[in-house]
Here is the input.
Amino acid sequence: MQLSFPTVIATLAAVFAVATPAAAQACAEVERFGVVTISPTTLSPGDTFTVTANFSCAAQLGVNPEYIDYYIKVPVNNNGFEPPILLARRTLNPSSATPLLDSFTTQLPYANYFNASYVVILDTTYPVNGTNGSPYSVVGSVEIPISIL
Here is the structure.
C-alpha cells in the first residue's frame, strides 16, 4: 500500500480532530472570565432587564468562579462623579440544572446618569494557588456596552 501526501494529511487531521475536545476548540481566550449578555441594551431608569452570564468556557480555561459581581460603570473619561453601581453580587449554584450559567432580571436603578458611555461589568472572583500551594483569590472582568437614556 502506498500512502499519498493528501492521504497522510487527511489521516493526521482526523486524528487531531478526535484527540482535541470539540468544546475546548470553541473557547477563545476572551471568554476566560465568562460571557455576559444584557437584554435589552438600551435602558432608562426603572426599566427591567435581564443579565445572563455563561461560564462554560471559563471553566474549560481553568477559571472556576467563587463570586460574581455585576456593575454599571462609565469606563472612560469618568470625571469622578460616576462611581460604579452594584447591580448584583451572586454565586453559581453547582446543583442547578445549568451550573455554569447565571441569569437574573433586575431594574435599572434610579441613579444620576450623565451623558456618557456605560458598560455592565462582570467581575469574576476565582481561586488560584500561590507558589507554596496555598490558595488566594483574583478577579477578572469582562464588559458589555449599554445605552442609558
